[in-house]
Amino acid sequence: MRSIQKKRTNLFYTLLSLPATAVGFCLSTQVAALSWILSTQYKLHIEDVALVWLAGPLSGIIAQPIVGMMSDKSWFMGGRRKPYIVMGGMLGAGMLLALPHIDLISQSSGASIFVVAVIVSLLLDMSINVTFNPARAIIADVTPPGLDRIKGFSWMQVVSGTFGIAAYFVSVAFGNMALIYVAAFVVLLFSTVPVFFIEEPRVLHTEAAEQAPTTGRSSLSDGVAILFPLYGFIAFGLFVVLNKMIFQGGWDGIQTYFMLGCLVATIFMGAITIRKGKRQPSDTNDFQKILLAHAFSWLGIQSMFVMSYFYIKEKMLPGLDTSHVIANAFSSIFSTSEHTAEQTAGNILSLGFLLLNVVGALLPVLLLEPLSKKMGKVKVYRTAIACMTAGYFLLYLAGTRELVFYLGMIICGIGWSAVISIVFAIMTEKVNARKMGMFMGLFNFSVVLPAMMTPGISKIVHDTGNYALLFLIIAISLLVSLICWLFLRD
């Protein structure tokens, strides 16, 4: 073991953060470029774009639990997590390079643009999902519970967030095509370098692992039972898959009603879980409440990722003079190309997410980590989610003005900084460390299942023609998440 790991220096935490940074940079590239390239270069409709994004949650449902359980029980290439990080990084870099050439792949294969876009997106998301679990589980594996683990996940967000800022900067300054090629290099590099500097423990012995209760059930049946608060999301996920892949959209007429029914059912099952926790407090019940709260957070966040471009295009651009757009002026510093309406929308989107990530990168170490020591992680997290909720309400009320849009994204960045840092420190201290990969996979269901609802939300927004409704839906979703967090023990 190298001295930087024994002493847990800042350099060690930086290296430990690189795999998660590769995942984050890949996701930032998706957010900045995927909807843009599918809409502008390949002319896909908003609902088709939402379906392409659906490939990610589908691959996550399959890949994350499997990879999590396999990494818990396997050991090769000198680790249980490192092999999956390397393989995921190589696949991700390849699929990023495929994005600008979907039309060529379509022509050579004879498949439609839509089918090729789905396959490339599916494999890109598969790479993210293969890397996602191990990249976070390895942080928990090599840091003890408590302040060291908080620091590990805080540094993860600082490093990842900093490169997220760089991703949106490249997008605004040099264009999304340049970003895609830069991302391919960064993802491959950051997925392979840490392998040579981080030593994984062969045997995991922690206080949490030794005291964690065991059951006679298999991991699979135990996992299904733990997912109880998310059964409503699971039902809608099955509905979407059956409707689109088997019934060719024949159930579209009832999609909105079924989605609303599933959300009501989820809230009802969440209330049962919360009530049970009051009678019989346990780490398992706390983990279920984290799943429930995080699911509603991600329902809003994923909707923002997928549909913000269309909000800007339909609601902001009609009232903007493109020659006086701040994002275009920023882009003009680095490029002299003419700013079309589509490029302007992309520039505003990228600058907005750049600001979101600036806040997300700086707050974990500068503010969230020290506050967690004084107030407790859960209280700090609740405050961050409350700020994010307020930011979305601001975007709903006045987000069509460019400056207000940026202000709203800055406020939302407070919540974003916690959603991808502190929540992992909270969650990992509630589970058996020897099954960290499996629980990371279960935790990811609170991300991928809500993401499968974005086609339903996009349909509501498109059918009403009121794209501002997007941010009202997101704000309500974050408010439900905040209420759920009020019932969690610190």
Protein described:
The chain is mainly alpha-helical and 490 residues long. The protein has one domain: MFS general substrate transporter like domains (Growth Hormone, Chain: A), CATH 1.20.1250.20. It is built from 21 helices and no strands. α13 runs antiparallel to α21 (469-485). The two termini are 33 Å apart. The relative contact order is 0.15.
Largest sheet, described in full?
A: none
Radius of gyration: 21 Å
CATH architecture: Up-down Bundle
Q: Output the CATH homologous superfamily.
A: MFS general substrate transporter like domains
Strand composition percent: under 5%
* Derived structural class: mainly alpha
Indicate the CATH class.
Mainly Alpha
How many separate domains make up the residues?
Answer: 1
Per DSSP, the total helix count is 21
**N-to-C terminal Cα separation, in Å?**
33 Å
Order of helices and strands: HHHHHHHHHHHHHHHHHHHHH
Low-pLDDT residue intervals, each spanning 5 or more residues? 207-218
Query: Taking all residues together, what is the mean pLDDT?
Result: 83
Summarize the structure.
The chain is mainly alpha-helical and about 500 residues long. It has a single domain, classed as Up-down Bundle (Growth Hormone, Chain: A). It contains 21 helices and no strands.
